[in-house]
Queue: 2 jobs
Job 1
Amino acid sequence: MTRSPNSSTLDFPAYRNQIAGVDVAKLAQDFGTPTYVYDLNLIAHRISELESFDVIRYAQKANSTLAVLDFVRQHGVKVDAVSAGEIVRAMKVGYRPGQENHDIVYTADIFDRAAIEMVVAHDIHCNMGSPDMIDQYGERMPDRPITLRINPGFGHGHSQKTNTGGPQSKHGIWHEQVGECFARAERYGLTISGLHMHIGSGTDFEHLSQVCDSMETLAREHHAPIKTISAGGGLPIAYEPNQEAIDLERYYDLWNGTRQRLQNELGHSIELEIEPGRYLVAESGFLLTEIRAIKEMGDNKFYLVDAGFNNLARPILYGAHHPISIGSSSQSEPSHYQDVIVGGPLCESGDIFTQEEGGFVTSRRLPKAAIGDLLILERAGAYGFVMSSNYNSKPFAAEVVIREGQSHLARKRQSDDDILRGEEIPW
Ligand code: LLP
């Protein structure tokens, strides 16, 4: 691993002895398995690549662990929150609430009761994804700026479940209702200070230019005196060796063009925001596991590890591909490879990390390994830990961050007491 990587220089190793300069065997020994390990240098590097945008707003839904969030804050990145809990996390690491700098923005399609109380109590800027939100907010917090998250009528995503635009998506304000939303806002003295579109992840530039056009047209049609436009999130990363890194310059140029044309028409400056989650943290995360059983079923060979979809749900949910490496293998000769299926400990047949969308089990060519060897699920820093569950009463994994070559515990593995907390037998 290089010290200052870009997407094309990050590799997909079959063996991995170190993460960010720390021995994987030592990490397993010090913190146990399964453990998520994050390389913070890599996050810093990804942030620096996006510096041409006026505002980088981290979509913390990808990874809201306090140590990660605080690190991102220290690097000048603002934050997005989608729930009361994410606002609490943002404030906990020192993001300031209030309307002054919009350090924290609440973006969602509803206010649940906890969220509306939280945004009111701390005067958090809101990015509205439904017309009803405007009324619910306006009644409590009139005379403030708000932004609108718009569904332009089409979308894009790596799977049906992550496509966030078009008529089948629940996200955002339908583009034909934007005019009505301006009128609603006016009733409460709310001003629309910005427009936002997030339509899922992908590198399809033709599609992206349609999104930019749509943003421009809407701003023009409604004579919106906007001060910000947000490109949303969705910057992709390579999960497989054949996937290309995104052309960030081209991405920026498209959005910057939209911004500049709108600036010229409106005669005032407009800030360009980007709202990445995955791009900042995915590659930084490694889920360290131990191989606990190796078995043959007919012609198939299985490595069964101590992490399951309770720890990393992306494969079972989306058929997502994560690179896999073997750490400190007892037989590290590259000629010794075999096709294996990698599964976890859960009492459910879908608990397989090597599967395609639809649940079709596949195998992966991996180095031969032995019981006790470490197996590392890579590029798991985004939508990994945050989507954990306690299924089968399994504890959440520990989390470790590596900063300047030093490893630090960021979250303890859950204890039995943590798992039982809050439960009562009511008789
Ligand atoms: N902004 C908004 C409004 C979003 O809805 C999302 C993601 C993002 C930003 C960040 O998107 P990113 O840059 O991370 O692609 N669990 C799925 C991803 C769900 C994304 C939901 N919204 C996965 O594991 O792929």
Job 2
Amino acid sequence: MKLIPLPAFDDNYIWMLHDGHRALVVDPGDAQPVLAALQSEGVQLQGILVTHHHPDHTGGVDVLRDATSASVFGPANERMPEPLRRLHGGGTVQLLGLDFKVLDVPGHTAGHIAYFAEVNGEAPVLFCGDTLFSGGCGRLFEGTPQQMLASLGQLAKLPGATRVCCAHEYTLSNLKFAVEVEPDNPQLVAYQAQCQALRGQSLPTLPSTIETERQINPFLRSERPTIIASARRFDAPGVASHGAFAMLRQWKNQYR
Ligand code: ZN
Ligand code: FE
């Protein structure tokens, strides 16, 4: 299986997975990079997976549905380009001979879902949209900190080797904040250097892995004493009572 992040807009990735014949793409905000990749890779689009309703994730769906025979899958409870098959957490989708498990991960949007699959002889894959980013997490447009914390907790329990396919290249700005929160985390400092080198060559920092994110992502580590202490340094009025995760998210919103 080949896993390819197709750059779109300023910092989106449309993920493509293919077996040399059939392909799926995730969150095609723009059809053009997908059509170009289908041609250059010589593969047919079998399925389109959508994680949430934002236009930078759905904008290319209609064009791709018309141009190919792909089936479209998306969240049960969000406004989506019809027709599509709507999925609930706990459901599954079969594509490319893989069983994708659907996870409910509300927070960024109210009905956000993620897709997880074991891949024979390779590391599993997770398509998590705008929920988990490398070194960070999505903004809370429609959900509460408690919902996002639970959603991220669910993702953090996946196998450590899982390839984390996020929908944006936000890694360096996330890591700048992460180092501010946790300056004494050696794995974080080393990971930052590694990602800076990749971006220096215009290469993607993704996919990350669940194991890496558990080690370096402050939003998966908000229950740790050092992170709680750090979050308290940033005391937004009224946020502290909602816990360290809420403080961290609020801090990051204002961080430059
Ligand atoms: Zn979004
Ligand atoms: Fe997005």
